Amino acid sequence: MIRLMPTSNDAGSVPEGMHFLHxxxxxxxxxxxxxxxxxxxxxxxxPACLEHIGTVLASLDRVSLRSWGCREEDHVVEYLCGRxxxxxxxxxxxxxxxxYDECLSLCxxxxxxxxxxxxxxxxxxAFEGWVECSRQERxxxxxxxxxxxxxxxxxxxxxxxxxYAALSxxxxxxxxxTRPQAHNPLGVPSxxxxxxxxxxxxxxxxxxxxxxxxxxxxxxxxxxxxxxxxLIKANSIALVESIGQADxxxxxxxxxxxxxxxxxxxxxxRSPPSAT
Length: 276
What we know:
The chain is 63% helix and 0% strand. By secondary structure, it is an all-alpha fold. It has one domain (25-37, 44-261). Helix 2 runs antiparallel to helix 10, helix 3 (76-96) runs antiparallel to helix 4 (100-122) and helix 3 (76-96) runs antiparallel to helix 9 (197-221).
């Protein structure tokens, strides 16, 4: 496992307390700067995806703040949009600090909200039912599984079963095969604050999907003016088109192909996944 510092049996040589925390923060600052320098080299789609995330996130911020108007009701939609917006901001920061697992765990929650928004637009009665039901009824009728099943009975869930399962099993739930921050072809784990280009790409692509879904369906639910809705849709489409194949469903194939094609001796150098 990659560590922030060498181990030692001498307790006096191991930083603790604020000394340890300042060391961690220095490592995180370094990782953040290195990530920012790395992203422009991640193919064509990687940098474009980050740019479009910024544009759609700016729109979602304005939606959350009711800059373009509101439902003049209870602001539930605006607040839920705000939750996704703040999750996306936090996920981006975690990615830049090298905490890819934690970023992707947030993407799972964003995906749950995105599917809810999709359901509310597809079924006009679902939103009122969700707002008015009791906690027990909500857990029974609007759990992530139930929401996805209702969507699959129609046109399908945009955050589907396989994606949700991958985000849950690999990055949210503890299991015997858990390897923290192992976002590299050899599966080498780390303690965070270590730049990994594959991890950066996967996180960008997984942030983009639920962010775009939420922006579009949230705007539809809020009945924003036509020109505003058209702008948000256009920006969200551009974001979706910048999503590459280096995501939680496709990256394992890249890792396997890399291991099969590169001798396991000497220095390993690699390019980011070709379809980024």
